[in-house]
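pls design
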Protein backbone atom coordinates (compact mmCIF):
# COMPACT_ATOMS: atom_id res chain seq x y z
CA UNK A 1 0.00 0.00 0.00
CA UNK A 2 1.34 3.43 -0.99
CA UNK A 3 0.48 5.84 1.85
CA UNK A 4 1.44 9.03 0.00
CA UNK A 5 0.44 8.56 -3.66
CA UNK A 6 1.82 11.89 -4.90
CA UNK A 7 3.22 15.23 -3.79
CA UNK A 8 3.71 18.83 -4.89
CA UNK A 9 6.08 21.32 -3.23
CA UNK A 10 6.58 25.07 -3.65
CA UNK A 11 8.40 27.77 -1.66
CA UNK A 12 10.48 25.32 0.37
CA UNK A 13 14.27 25.60 0.31
CA UNK A 14 15.36 25.03 -3.30
CA UNK A 15 11.75 24.88 -4.55
CA UNK A 16 10.56 28.25 -5.86
CA UNK A 17 7.17 29.82 -6.39
CA UNK A 18 6.02 27.40 -9.09
CA UNK A 19 4.95 24.03 -7.64
CA UNK A 20 7.00 21.00 -8.61
CA UNK A 21 4.82 17.93 -9.09
CA UNK A 22 5.57 14.30 -8.27
CA UNK A 23 2.54 12.68 -9.87
CA UNK A 24 2.93 9.10 -8.70
CA UNK A 25 4.83 7.45 -5.87
CA UNK A 26 5.41 3.73 -5.48
CA UNK A 27 6.59 1.66 -2.51
CA UNK A 28 10.18 2.40 -3.54
CA UNK A 29 11.06 5.70 -5.25
CA UNK A 30 14.36 6.90 -6.69
CA UNK A 31 15.09 10.63 -6.88
CA UNK A 32 17.69 11.16 -9.60
CA UNK A 33 19.16 14.52 -10.58
CA UNK A 34 22.15 16.81 -10.62
CA UNK A 35 23.82 18.06 -7.45
CA UNK A 36 21.73 20.72 -5.67
CA UNK A 37 18.67 19.77 -7.71
CA UNK A 38 16.61 19.42 -4.52
CA UNK A 39 16.56 15.65 -4.03
CA UNK A 40 17.45 15.85 -0.34
CA UNK A 41 14.89 18.63 0.18
CA UNK A 42 12.10 16.31 -0.96
CA UNK A 43 13.15 13.80 1.70
CA UNK A 44 13.52 16.57 4.28
CA UNK A 45 10.03 17.86 3.47
CA UNK A 46 8.51 14.38 3.76
CA UNK A 47 10.27 13.58 7.03
CA UNK A 48 10.10 16.95 8.84
CA UNK A 49 7.18 18.94 7.43
CA UNK A 50 4.54 16.61 5.97
CA UNK A 51 3.90 14.63 9.20
CA UNK A 52 3.08 17.87 11.06
CA UNK A 53 0.55 19.25 8.56
CA UNK A 54 -2.55 17.13 9.40
CA UNK A 55 -2.46 18.23 13.05
CA UNK A 56 -1.81 21.85 12.02
CA UNK A 57 -4.93 21.77 9.85
CA UNK A 58 -7.00 19.97 12.46
CA UNK A 59 -5.97 22.29 15.30
CA UNK A 60 -6.03 25.50 13.24
CA UNK A 61 -2.33 26.26 13.75
CA UNK A 62 -1.48 29.39 11.77
CA UNK A 63 2.09 30.08 12.90
CA UNK A 64 5.37 28.78 11.47
CA UNK A 65 6.75 28.39 14.98
CA UNK A 66 4.44 25.40 15.43
CA UNK A 67 5.79 23.78 12.26
CA UNK A 68 9.43 22.70 11.79
CA UNK A 69 10.46 25.76 9.74
CA UNK A 70 13.62 27.78 10.20
CA UNK A 71 15.22 30.58 8.19
CA UNK A 72 16.88 28.14 5.79
CA UNK A 73 13.57 26.46 4.93
CA UNK A 74 12.24 29.55 3.15
CA UNK A 75 13.07 29.98 -0.53
CA UNK A 76 15.29 33.06 -0.54
CA UNK A 77 14.93 34.74 -3.93
CA UNK A 78 11.36 36.07 -3.70
CA UNK A 79 10.10 34.61 -0.40
CA UNK A 80 7.09 32.76 -1.90
CA UNK A 81 4.57 30.94 0.31
CA UNK A 82 5.35 27.34 1.23
CA UNK A 83 2.84 25.04 -0.45
CA UNK A 84 2.00 21.37 -0.06
CA UNK A 85 0.12 19.81 -2.96
CA UNK A 86 -2.08 16.71 -2.95
CA UNK A 87 -3.26 15.28 -6.25
CA UNK A 88 -6.39 13.41 -7.30
CA UNK A 89 -6.52 11.10 -10.30
CA UNK A 90 -9.13 12.05 -12.86
CA UNK A 91 -8.77 9.05 -15.21
CA UNK A 92 -11.51 7.00 -13.55
CA UNK A 93 -15.28 6.62 -13.68
CA UNK A 94 -16.02 6.76 -9.96
CA UNK A 95 -14.42 7.62 -6.66
CA UNK A 96 -12.67 4.78 -4.80
CA UNK A 97 -14.72 3.25 -1.99
CA UNK A 98 -12.21 4.54 0.58
CA UNK A 99 -12.27 8.12 -0.74
CA UNK A 100 -12.91 10.70 1.97
CA UNK A 101 -15.81 12.23 0.03
CA UNK A 102 -17.60 8.90 -0.27
CA UNK A 103 -17.81 8.65 3.51
CA UNK A 104 -19.64 11.99 3.62
CA UNK A 105 -22.29 11.10 1.07
CA UNK A 106 -25.66 9.84 2.21
CA UNK A 107 -26.23 8.26 -1.20
CA UNK A 108 -24.22 7.78 -4.39
CA UNK A 109 -26.86 9.05 -6.86
CA UNK A 110 -28.27 12.57 -7.13
CA UNK A 111 -31.69 12.93 -8.70
CA UNK A 112 -31.53 16.02 -10.87
CA UNK A 113 -34.30 17.79 -12.73
CA UNK A 114 -35.40 16.40 -16.08
CA UNK A 115 -32.44 15.66 -18.39
CA UNK A 116 -29.96 15.43 -15.49
CA UNK A 117 -31.79 12.64 -13.68
CA UNK A 118 -29.73 9.77 -12.26
CA UNK A 119 -26.37 11.47 -12.72
CA UNK A 120 -23.98 10.05 -10.12
CA UNK A 121 -22.30 12.23 -7.55
CA UNK A 122 -18.99 10.68 -8.59
CA UNK A 123 -19.38 11.87 -12.16
CA UNK A 124 -20.11 15.45 -11.06
CA UNK A 125 -17.11 15.57 -8.71
CA UNK A 126 -14.80 14.00 -11.28
CA UNK A 127 -16.14 16.37 -13.94
CA UNK A 128 -14.94 19.34 -11.88
CA UNK A 129 -11.61 17.70 -11.04
CA UNK A 130 -10.98 16.83 -14.67
CA UNK A 131 -11.72 20.41 -15.71
CA UNK A 132 -9.34 21.79 -13.08
CA UNK A 133 -6.56 19.47 -14.26
CA UNK A 134 -7.20 20.64 -17.83
CA UNK A 135 -7.03 24.31 -16.83
CA UNK A 136 -3.83 23.77 -14.81
CA UNK A 137 -2.36 21.62 -17.60
CA UNK A 138 -1.53 18.90 -15.07
CA UNK A 139 -2.12 15.15 -15.11
CA UNK A 140 -3.85 15.25 -11.70
CA UNK A 141 -6.27 17.59 -9.99
CA UNK A 142 -4.15 19.31 -7.34
CA UNK A 143 -5.13 20.90 -4.05
CA UNK A 144 -2.43 23.33 -2.85
CA UNK A 145 -2.28 24.03 0.90
CA UNK A 146 -0.49 27.03 2.39
CA UNK A 147 1.99 26.22 5.16
CA UNK A 148 1.34 27.19 7.82
CA UNK A 149 -2.39 27.00 7.02
CA UNK A 150 -4.24 30.29 6.67
CA UNK A 151 -7.20 31.12 8.94
CA UNK A 152 -10.47 30.18 7.28
CA UNK A 153 -11.50 33.82 6.77
CA UNK A 154 -8.27 34.48 4.84
CA UNK A 155 -8.30 31.36 2.73
CA UNK A 156 -9.11 31.73 -0.93
CA UNK A 157 -9.32 29.26 -3.74
CA UNK A 158 -7.00 28.88 -6.66
CA UNK A 159 -8.37 30.63 -9.71
CA UNK A 160 -8.46 27.31 -11.54
CA UNK A 161 -10.89 25.89 -8.93
CA UNK A 162 -13.21 28.87 -9.47
CA UNK A 163 -13.06 28.35 -13.22
CA UNK A 164 -13.42 24.57 -13.05
CA UNK A 165 -16.58 24.62 -10.92
CA UNK A 166 -18.35 26.51 -13.71
CA UNK A 167 -18.31 23.33 -15.81
CA UNK A 168 -21.41 22.30 -13.82
CA UNK A 169 -24.83 23.70 -14.66
CA UNK A 170 -26.90 25.38 -11.96
CA UNK A 171 -28.97 22.23 -11.59
CA UNK A 172 -25.94 19.95 -11.29
CA UNK A 173 -24.12 22.24 -8.88
CA UNK A 174 -27.07 22.93 -6.59
CA UNK A 175 -27.84 19.20 -6.36
CA UNK A 176 -24.20 18.34 -5.63
CA UNK A 177 -24.01 21.16 -3.06
CA UNK A 178 -27.11 19.89 -1.25
CA UNK A 179 -25.69 16.37 -1.05
CA UNK A 180 -22.24 17.48 0.15
CA UNK A 181 -23.43 20.10 2.65
CA UNK A 182 -26.88 18.73 3.62
CA UNK A 183 -28.16 22.28 3.17
CA UNK A 184 -30.81 23.86 0.96
CA UNK A 185 -31.49 27.12 -0.83
CA UNK A 186 -28.46 29.32 -1.30
CA UNK A 187 -27.10 30.83 -4.49
CA UNK A 188 -24.42 29.87 -6.97
CA UNK A 189 -21.93 32.64 -6.20
CA UNK A 190 -22.32 32.91 -2.43
CA UNK A 191 -22.83 29.29 -1.37
CA UNK A 192 -22.92 26.60 -4.06
CA UNK A 193 -19.52 27.30 -5.61
CA UNK A 194 -17.40 28.14 -2.51
CA UNK A 195 -18.96 25.45 -0.32
CA UNK A 196 -18.61 22.73 -2.95
CA UNK A 197 -15.00 23.66 -3.73
CA UNK A 198 -14.19 23.62 0.00
CA UNK A 199 -15.64 20.12 0.31
CA UNK A 200 -13.56 18.89 -2.62
CA UNK A 201 -10.21 20.02 -1.20
CA UNK A 202 -7.88 17.09 -0.53
CA UNK A 203 -6.16 16.77 2.85
CA UNK A 204 -2.84 15.13 3.73
CA UNK A 205 -2.87 11.78 5.50
CA UNK A 206 -1.33 11.26 8.93
CA UNK A 207 2.06 9.57 8.63
CA UNK A 208 5.11 8.72 10.69
CA UNK A 209 8.41 9.26 8.89
CA UNK A 210 11.96 8.19 9.68
CA UNK A 211 14.88 9.56 7.68
CA UNK A 212 17.82 7.18 7.43
CA UNK A 213 21.06 9.10 6.75
CA UNK A 214 23.08 8.12 3.69
CA UNK A 215 26.29 8.33 5.75
CA UNK A 216 26.19 6.24 8.93
CA UNK A 217 28.76 5.34 11.54
CA UNK A 218 29.39 2.65 14.13
CA UNK A 219 28.87 4.43 17.41
CA UNK A 220 31.34 4.33 20.27
CA UNK A 221 31.15 1.68 22.98
CA UNK A 222 28.17 2.26 25.25
CA UNK A 223 26.44 4.72 22.93
CA UNK A 224 22.72 4.40 22.40
CA UNK A 225 20.21 5.82 19.97
CA UNK A 226 16.81 5.04 18.53
CA UNK A 227 17.78 6.61 15.19
CA UNK A 228 19.21 4.84 12.16
CA UNK A 229 22.53 6.69 11.98
CA UNK A 230 24.59 3.80 13.41
CA UNK A 231 24.88 5.21 16.93
CA UNK A 232 24.29 2.44 19.47
CA UNK A 233 24.38 -0.33 16.87
CA UNK A 234 27.00 -2.35 18.80
CA UNK A 235 24.90 -2.65 21.95
CA UNK A 236 21.76 -3.33 19.96
CA UNK A 237 23.40 -6.18 18.06
CA UNK A 238 24.92 -7.58 21.26
CA UNK A 239 21.47 -7.81 22.84
CA UNK A 240 20.21 -9.72 19.81
CA UNK A 241 23.21 -12.05 19.68
CA UNK A 242 23.09 -12.95 23.38
CA UNK A 243 19.57 -12.21 24.64
CA UNK A 244 18.46 -12.91 28.18
CA UNK A 245 16.40 -15.98 29.02
CA UNK A 246 13.11 -14.14 28.47
CA UNK A 247 14.00 -12.89 24.97
CA UNK A 248 15.57 -15.91 23.28
CA UNK A 249 13.51 -15.22 20.16
CA UNK A 250 15.73 -12.16 19.55
CA UNK A 251 18.51 -14.52 18.47
CA UNK A 252 16.43 -15.41 15.40
CA UNK A 253 16.53 -11.77 14.36
CA UNK A 254 20.31 -11.74 14.81
CA UNK A 255 20.58 -14.83 12.59
CA UNK A 256 18.48 -13.09 9.93
CA UNK A 257 20.82 -10.08 10.06
CA UNK A 258 23.78 -12.42 9.63
CA UNK A 259 22.13 -14.06 6.61
CA UNK A 260 21.52 -10.62 5.12
CA UNK A 261 25.19 -9.71 5.66
CA UNK A 262 26.25 -12.91 3.86
CA UNK A 263 24.09 -12.00 0.87
CA UNK A 264 25.45 -8.45 0.73
CA UNK A 265 29.14 -9.41 0.91
CA UNK A 266 28.60 -12.60 -1.13
CA UNK A 267 30.30 -14.76 1.49
CA UNK A 268 28.16 -17.68 2.71
CA UNK A 269 30.64 -18.33 5.54
CA UNK A 270 30.66 -14.77 6.92
CA UNK A 271 30.10 -14.55 10.69
CA UNK A 272 28.83 -11.52 12.58
CA UNK A 273 30.30 -11.21 16.07
CA UNK A 274 30.19 -8.65 18.87
CA UNK A 275 33.29 -9.15 21.10
CA UNK A 276 33.19 -9.05 24.90
CA UNK A 277 34.57 -5.50 25.02
CA UNK A 278 31.80 -4.30 22.70
CA UNK A 279 34.18 -1.87 20.99
CA UNK A 280 33.81 -3.09 17.41
CA UNK A 281 31.86 -5.44 15.12
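designed seq:
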Amino acid sequence: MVIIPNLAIAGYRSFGREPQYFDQFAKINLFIGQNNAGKSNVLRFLSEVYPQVPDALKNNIYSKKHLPFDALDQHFSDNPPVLLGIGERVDKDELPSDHWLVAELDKRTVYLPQKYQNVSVDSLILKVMEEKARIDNTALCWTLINLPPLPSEKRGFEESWLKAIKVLTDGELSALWEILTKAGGGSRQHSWEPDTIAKMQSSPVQIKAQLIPAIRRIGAKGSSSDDFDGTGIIDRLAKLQNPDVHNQHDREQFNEITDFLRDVVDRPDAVLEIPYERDTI
